[in-house]
Amino acid sequence: MPDRFAGRVLVAEDNPINFAVACELLQRLGLKVDHAPDGRMAADLARATPYDLILMDMQMPLMSGLEATRAIRELGLHELPIVGLTANAFASDREACLAAGMSDFVAKPINRAKMTGILAKWLPQSGAAVARHTATTDPEHASVDDGLVLVDEGVRAELAREIGADLLDELTRQFWPDATRSASEAARALQAGEPDLALRELHTLKGIAGTLGFSVFEAASRAAEAAIRSGRDADLTGLQTALLRTMLALGTGDPGETATPGGEAMRAVG
């Protein structure tokens, strides 16, 4: 499989950490990268720029990845490869991506191996595309696995090799305030009867935690998301605990500074 490519890729991704990882991977593989932080801009850029590939997050502001894909196809760009990116691996998400006109579907987190596979499959110089979508695992009944390590050093070592240790450290520092805010916002949303907003926050947390190798926190986010989807109690207290344990494991910050007020509110009914 080639380790250098040529061409221009549009990454449509609203989360700065996810974009930074994808951008660094793509640039190290020899590609030019443009960024669209929302679906509307993705459609506008696709109209104006001859891209070789678009990586499209499903959940974005202003216009979702699905809506943006439909808009791009309506421009007549039927041959342009559009690969859907999401932290979910539900069969329904894969079907929604393909129904909207996406060429393929890849579950986050994205690492060098996954990225190289996408590029080799869809970029013109890599040969004809073969399968229309990749196999994924359905995590509908996912739960926190007590056997998981708090911090997967193997994942982080691989990511450091792929994007550089300095960028990994920067993204990790950025993660803590973002994750604390998202966990608090998810709890507030559930208390306010806004499960869709809570799901969006948990979806983001799950994807970024997986990318950065925070296994227990990723599993806690996944379990809370699955609970809300099925109408069960979402244990957001456990989510916050997993975040603080991860911070302590890395020796980052004072957990007391990021504790969420009103601990009882962190357990809510979806």
Shape: globular
Unreliable residue runs:
126-146, 253-270
What gyration radius follows from the Cα positions, in whole Å?
Answer: 18 Å
Main sheet? 5 strands, parallel
Oligomer: single chain
Alpha carbon gap, first and last residue: 45 Å
> What structural category arises from helix and sheet content?
alpha/beta
CATH homologous superfamily annotation of the largest domain: Response regulator
What is the count of distinct domains?
Answer: 2
CATH architecture of the largest domain: 3-Layer(aba) Sandwich
The CATH first-level class of the largest domain comes to: Alpha Beta
- Strand order, biggest sheet? 2-1-3-4-5
The helix/strand order is EHEHEHEHEHHHHHEHHE
Q: Under CATH, the topology of the largest domain is which?
A: Rossmann fold
Put simply, the count of helices is: 11
Helix content estimate:
40-55%
The total count of strands amounts to: 7
Quick description:
This protein is an alpha/beta fold and 270 residues long. It has helices spanning 16-28, 39-48, 65-74, 91-100, 112-122, 153-163, 165-191, 195-212, 215-229, 236-250, 255-258; strands at residues 8-12, 32-36, 53-57, 82-86, 104-107, 233-235, 267-269. The chain contains eleven helices and seven strands.
What would you note in describing this structure?
The protein has about 270 residues and is of the alpha/beta class. It folds into 2 domains: about 10-125, 3-Layer(aba) Sandwich (Rossmann fold), CATH 3.40.50; about 155-270, Up-down Bundle (Four Helix Bundle (Hemerythrin (Met), subunit A)), CATH 1.20.120. About 55% of the residues lie in helices and about 10% in strands. It has 11 helices and 7 strands. It has helices at about 15-30, 40-50, 65-75, 90-100, 110-120, 155-165, 165-190, 195-210, 215-230, 235-250, 255-260, and strands spanning about 10, 30-35, 55, 80-85, 105, 235, 265-270. It has a 5-stranded parallel β-sheet with strand order 2-1-3-4-5, sandwiched between helices. The chain has a two-stranded antiparallel ribbon with strand order 6-7. Strand 3 (about 55), helix 3 and strand 4 (about 80-85) form a beta-alpha-beta unit. Helix 7 runs antiparallel to helix 8 (about 195-210), helix 8 (about 195-210) packs antiparallel against helix 9 and helix 9 (about 215-230) packs antiparallel against helix 10 (about 235-250).
